[in-house]
Amino acid sequence: MDGAPQDGVPATQQTCYRHPGREANVRCTRCERPVCPECMVSASVGFQCPECVSAGSAGGREPRTRYGGRVVSGTAAVTKSLIAVNLVVYLLAHFLSDKFVIPLQLVGGGYYEGHKVGVAEGPDQWYRLVTAIFTHQSLPHLALNMLSLWWIGPPVEAALGRIRFLALYVLAGLGGSALSFVFMGPGDASLGASGAIFGLLGAIGVLVKRVGGDMRPIATILVLNLVFTFAWAGIDWRAHIGGLVFGAAIAFGMTHGPRERRTQTQVVTCALAVAAIVAMVCIGVADFPAF
Q1: Number of H helices, E strands in the chain
Q2: What is the DSSP letter of 108?
Q3: For the residues 86-107, what does the mean pLDDT come to?
Q4: Where are the transmembrane segments (predicted)?
Q5: Of 97, 180, 194, 256, catalytic
Q6: I want to staple 39 with a disulfide (CB 3.0 to 4.6 A). Which of 35, 76, 193, 278 is the partner?
């Protein structure tokens, strides 16, 4: 009852439990101990004492994004890291030229320094599916892809969280590489982050649709990019289409699973994507023409 004595001290003359002698006219909403203005911590309802705040932080759940990712301080750390990796690889490619690039680019099958190389040669060459995603030789190619990543990456990363965003980016890039390899012939080669970028385009479309946003700007950007893909000679449309399909499919699985089994659904989605990529590569190896 308001005004009732506590430990022999009238409510109007309470002292802070942490600072004896300081008047305290507010009680912690959790433990009901009196606290002075210095010790008052604003809560969703009323004020709490420092000890209750610490206990609640230790035992409470950390904040999560709508789709289960951790909410962390800082902005777009993974996006910036991916851009940095691409820049470093480009600089190495620029100064070291073909002896650095050829072992990294996506090659279906061919000869290099008298040896057979390429994804068709077996699992020891499948690393090219990954390294090609981070390799550029042309500055305009690098600039276009990195600007696109800078614009599209942060909102997708903020929505999914860092780990889910990175998984989507890499798997979309791998999906683009795998589809590109399926249609490759001897001597064909491909490189660049475009497949992963198209994966982010597909993902942001799914995210906007999921929250009931306006799809017209996304659709316009996507159509323009597809027109550019098929109209410009030398662009690997297979990587673009593969990345787009995988990015959209993975984003759908990450955002539409039941909340109580959200993480499990996302893991299964990524596992199915990996299985599909491996299956495509195996089909490509089996059907690759002799050289």
Answers
A1: 10, 8
A2: S
A3: 95
A4: 71-93, 126-153, 165-183, 189-208, 215-233, 239-255, 267-286
A5: 194
A6: 35
Mark whether 44 is an active-site residue: no
Query: DSSP states of 76-91 as a string?
Result: -HHHHHHHHHHHHHHH
- Count the alpha carbons within 13 Å of 22 in the hemisphere toward its beta carbon: 13
Please tell me whether residue 57 adopts helix, strand or coil conformation. Answer: helix
What per-residue confidence (pLDDT) applies to 44? Answer: 53
Query: In the predicted model, what is the mean pLDDT of residues 55-68?
Result: 65
Q: Give the residue extent of every domain in the chain.
A: 11-59, 77-287
Q: Is 240 a catalytic residue?
A: yes
Dist. CA 68–CA 55, nearest whole Å: 23
Report d(CA 205, CA 252) in Å as an integer: 10
209-212: long-range pairs with CB below 8 Å, 24+? 210/255, 210/256
CB 160 within 8 A of CB 168: yes
pTM over the 0.90 mark: no
Q: Is the pLDDT of residue 97 over 60?
A: yes
CB atoms within 10 A of CB 64: 12
CA 149 remoteness from chain centre: 11
End-to-end alpha-carbon separation of the chain, Å? 90
Share of the chain above pLDDT 70, in %: 88
Q: Looking at residues 259-281, what average pLDDT do you find? A: 95
